[in-house]
Amino acid sequence: MGNATTKERSEQEVQQIYQxxxxxxxxxxxxxxTDDPEIKATGADTAMLKEFYTPQDALYTIxxxxxxxxxxxxxxxxxxxxxxxxxxxxxxxxxxxxxYREKRDDGNIWYxxxxxxxxxxxxxxGKAMNLGWIGPLFQTLGTGTLQVCYNAGVPFYRCxxxxxxxxxxxxxxxxxxxxxxxxxxxxxCVSPCACIQAVRDTLGADNCQHPQGVCLQTDAMADFxxxxxxxxxxxxxEQAEAILRKSIDRGLCIQTTYAKDNEIICQCxxxxxxxxxxxxxxxxxxxxxVTNYVIEHDRDAxxxxxxxxxxxxxxxxxxxxxxxxxxxxxxxxxGQCRKICAHGAPIITDGKAVIDHxxxxxxxxxxxxxxxxxxxxxxxxxxxxxNRKIAEYTKAVVDGRPCFHISLxxxxxxxxxxxxxxxxxxxxxxxxFASFDxxxxxxxxxxxxNAQTPLRGSAADSGESHVHEHDHFRRIHPDTDWRSCLxxxxxxxxxxxxxxxxxI
Length: 504
What we know:
Strand order of the largest sheet: 3-7-8-5-4-6
Helix content: 25-40%
Distance between the termini: 97 Å
Radius of gyration: 32 Å
CATH topology of the largest domain: Arc Repressor Mutant, subunit A
CATH architecture of the largest domain: Orthogonal Bundle
Number of strands: 14
Oligomer: single chain
Number of domains: 3
Low-confidence stretches: 1-6
């Protein structure tokens, strides 16, 4: 590219160089992704580059391979430099945190470009950062960057469990056993956290009390931090383990690179971290993309203390009306519920669906179609109200249409047919019923079931005295209210409860 100095270039040429550098960095695994016009208007997208890169640094960087390491010899030939000039230039850029430098066992020094994160941004942690650009840039790094990583299919970071004891049957993958992995590393470094510095120190947000100097680097990355960047301090394996265990006790989340070597180990929080807040605000459930594990709730072991909801870093655990926790945040904003609803009740906002209850008629089609099971029934609705809705749904189907209804009263189960854990039938098979009147038909079926003697050993054969002795349905489920459905059906004109039973 030549060796023209800044003075030999016009202001327009210099501006174009930084724009080209921005485009180059933006094309890497972790780019800027500053499509937001408001962020572009601030100039924050190029401000950091101008602060750290000279125009010549920028030109050298643009010429570097995007996805591969390179040797000084390659760089010398590419830039028409002598061997000494190439080595001197690359070493200087590495020490200034512009590129990554790695000394390998074969004695060769290899170089690689530095993405925005983990790279340029982190490599300048502890150094003065300009208030004019740090806020908008940090914002876009935490959102747009994350989006690109997810679109790529393999994120840069992943969350690892705190230990074997939190994994079912202690089935912890070897690469996720963070304490066992520590023993495989030769060198350790602890450094300032660029995220916390950007938000707490530079922007003046001091409402977070989480520890600052807990970012860990190992092996080649530790070499780079300690020997080239002069960033952080060297620690022992025991000290690294102590830092991790203290962070766990403080409620921090352990995250590492999506690689088996764990050369970067972060202890993140949702206050000032660049990753977790973005994940928390991500439009949908990102858990599957950032961890090898999913959380389950053992209802039998739960004592409803609510502690899990209090300590959850991502705040995805909520206490339901029944006192038990439930996992939330599953919606991915696909819009399937919106598409299938005839009343436009689901609304996609900020990447998520919400239900407009003024429009919703309670048909449940959104529940059936949602691929993430993110739409749930509001269980605090009364049983009577639910049954009235069923009557109204029936009217919507039969109103104005000639209909003939047939019911097979056989294998009458104690729970809804959809329940996989259903027990044996509660009464003997009764037979087939038919009518042009759906209300009269259901009334006749109910009366016929209640006239039967419960099968021995069934849920209806408790051997105890009950208030609803002659109502097998309410004997099993005292809070059910099937009468309200038929009463409402009669009220809205579907049919009548009075009937004449003709046996054939």
